[in-house]
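Is this the right way to post structure tokens for a design question? Let me know if I should format differently. Anyway, here goes:
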């Protein structure tokens, strides 16, 4: 969340941010109710002072035997007004806080304006492969090799779920282990986190209240299945103060991810492109504010390193305001080329949040340089389904098999091909 003083002093900027991010919060109502709340609190303070003064006067009158009936009646009238005012101020507190939690982060000044069509291409790496045969989409390739079964998960769970079989399941496990090893070698501490968290954790990272309808909730226990390990990892330091000398604190974590909303109806429903449940490795950083911008580039480069080692052509886009998430101030999307579906597929979003999440979650730093809220950053490193799609389609052979990328072969007992 944004600092309340910042909100009061930058109304035009915040209103523009709400519009640019296409958020539905009634920002004018927030400012109106916040002004009414502060006015009510100020008036309540003044009335409380009157009540206190009247009580002292009544006490003094009684001590000297004077009649205090009129003073008591006047005091009771003021006390009644005060009680009603405090009740209204409490109601306004609730209304203001509900709106406050729905105000998005302000985009960084260099973020382009507009929707997805205005995302800015920053750089690209590698050349899309030109196969000397007709590229087969991964769902057909996987079915032909007996590695993907779309019918069994549909019978179990409905649409939006997958079943990887044999060597394809082993390939995913190899990717997970390799991703984590690569991040650990770069200084990220591996953690194994809860896959179910409470509302406070979801609120801390910005999933609640905005995305509640997109998440799976266990109502009896008031727990949510995480949509990304970002939620659990960021909340490791909830309501804690980190030593300045310990920054940056960097973590990597593997987890399943659960998302009720899996894209627009009827879009990309085949194969592994959009899933209600999928696996992902996440990288998260807690940074000193002075290093956050540099850290964003480092975190993005770490995700890019994986695609380079896999020799998968990709591009990096700086997201425009309308494509930016609720909590992010700035975000790079990494998109890998997949010839079977003929698309650039997003495999990572690398975001910096400023102190937006840290304020919600109460994560601070303190040291010789002062104290304040940390800056949080995270990125997919990487999301498994679309990386698997990209490997299947980029490394397919003319005889219908799949070559294993060299960096993964040690994790597959030296196996060079699937199928």
């Amino acid at each position: 969340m944004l600092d309340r003083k910042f909100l009061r002093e930058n109304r035009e900027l915040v209103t523009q941010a709400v519009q640019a991010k296409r958020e539905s919060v009634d920002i004018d109502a927030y400012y109106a109710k916040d002004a009414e709340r502060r006015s009510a609190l100020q008036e309540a303070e003044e009335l409380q002072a009157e009540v206190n003064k009247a009580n002292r006067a009544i006490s003094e009158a009684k001590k000297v035997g004077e009649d205090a009936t009129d003073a008591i009646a006047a005091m009771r009238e003021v006390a009644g007004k005060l009680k009603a005012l405090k009740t209204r101020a409490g109601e306004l507190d609730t209304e203001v806080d509900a709106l406050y939690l729905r105000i998005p982060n302000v985009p960084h000044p260099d973020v382009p304006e507009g929707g997805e069509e205005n995302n800015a291409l920053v750089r690209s790496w590698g050349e899309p492969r030109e196969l000397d045969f007709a590229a087969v989409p991964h769902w057909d390739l996987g079915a032909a090799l007996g590695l993907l079964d779309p019918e069994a998960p549909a019978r179990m769970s409905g649409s939006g779920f997958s079943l990887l079989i044999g060597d394809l399941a082993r390939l995913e496990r190899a990717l997970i282990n390799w991703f984590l090893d690569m991040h650990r070698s770069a200084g990220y501490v591996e953690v194994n986190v809860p896959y179910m968290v409470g509302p406070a954790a979801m609120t801390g990272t910005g999933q609640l209240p905005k995305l509640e309808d997109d998440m799976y909730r266990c109502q009896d226990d008031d727990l949510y299945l995480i949509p990304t390990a970002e939620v659990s990892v960021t909340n490791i330091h909830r309501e804690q103060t980190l030593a300045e000398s310990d920054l940056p604190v960097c973590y990597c974590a593997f987890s399943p991810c659960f998302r009720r909303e899996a894209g627009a109806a009827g879009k990309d429903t085949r194969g592994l492109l959009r899933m209600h449940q999928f696996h992902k490795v996440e990288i998260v950083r807690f940074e000193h504010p002075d290093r956050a911008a540099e850290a964003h580039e480092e975190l993005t480069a770490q995700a890019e390193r994986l695609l380079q080692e896999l020799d998968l052509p990709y591009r990096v886009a700086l997201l425009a305001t309308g494509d930016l998430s609720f909590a992010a101030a700035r975000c790079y999307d990494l998109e890998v080329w997949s010839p079977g579906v003929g698309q650039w597929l997003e495999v990572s979003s690398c975001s910096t949040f400023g102190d937006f999440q840290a304020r919600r979650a109460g994560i601070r730093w303190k040291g010789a340089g002062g104290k304040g809220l940390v800056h949080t950053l995270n990125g997919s490193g990487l999301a498994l389904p679309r990386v698997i799609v990209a490997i299947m389609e980029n490394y397919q052979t003319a005889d219908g098999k799949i070559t294993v990328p060299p960096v993964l072969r040690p994790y597959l007992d030296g196996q060079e091909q699937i199928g």
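Format looks fine. Someone answered above. Worth noting: The first helix runs from residue 4 to 9. The radius of gyration is 27 Å.
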